[in-house]
């Protein structure tokens, strides 16, 4: 079994259950636009491709102006309420500690803006774990593009076969497969189970990562 040298995590739906705060930010934005609120489940289906895509999809048939104002409202609100109701999933800290204890570099690639990623990691006390953090606005490309992964593979001088991408959505699996890394799908996140069918492995809670063959 190959030795793993770099572990790349997604953020929302993988390390942090942020859906309640994303729902609040979405409904704040919708209220300002004079639109009806969405349920948590409704917002779940919009998460995964970054704030712009979420706002565009929430503002059905919205004009360009409405979408631009909506993105500002969403990002401002979310920035001020990053973790009012968000928390790491069970076993996240313990799993990150265990991986770090083995001397493995941990990195993060999210489709959330990088300032929001850093802010969320900091308020939850998870910022110390990651040697690199890439957000939606860090590069011209975002997941499902493999480019953010290629950048980290270059930065960490790691070959694809010795890296893993851990995420909850089809974008994570597609980006990971596109880069040729091992993919792990988190079934407890926001993606539908079918979205994770192409992942090499699926886990129902993060600590199961440590039980996968390449860590044993
Ligand atoms: O905020 C989003 O839409 C997605 O964020 P993620 O890539 O960390 O899951
Ligand atoms: Mg995610």
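-> sequence recovered:
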């Amino acid at each position: 079994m190959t030795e793993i040298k770099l572990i790349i995590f997604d953020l929302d739906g993988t390390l942090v259950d942020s859906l309640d705060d994303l729902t609040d930010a979405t409904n704040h934005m919708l209220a300002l636009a004079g639109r009806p609120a969405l349920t948590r489940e409704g917002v779940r289906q919009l998460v995964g491709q970054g704030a712009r895509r979420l706002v565009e999809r929430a503002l059905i048939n919205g004009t360009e102006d409405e979408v631009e104002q909506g993105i500002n409202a969403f990002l401002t609100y979310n920035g001020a309420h990053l973790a009012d109701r968000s928390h790491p999933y069970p076993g996240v800290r313990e799993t990150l500690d265990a991986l770090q204890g083995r001397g493995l570099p941990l990195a993060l690639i999210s489709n959330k803006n990088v300032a929001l990623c850093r802010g969320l990691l900091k308020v939850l006390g998870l910022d110390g774990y990651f040697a690199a953090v890439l957000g939606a606005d860090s590069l011209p490309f975002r997941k499902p593009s493999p480019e953010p992964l290629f950048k980290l593979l270059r930065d960490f001088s790691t070959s694809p076969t010795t890296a893993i991408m851990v995420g909850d959505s089809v974008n994570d699996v597609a980006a990971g497969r596109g880069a040729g890394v091992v993919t792990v799908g988190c079934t407890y996140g926001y993606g539908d189970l079918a979205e994770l069918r192409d992942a090499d492995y699926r886990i129902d809670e993060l600590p199961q990562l440590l039980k996968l063959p390449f860590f044993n």
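Residues 10, 12-14, 48, 167-169, 189 surround magnesium ion (ligand 2) (CB under 6 Å).
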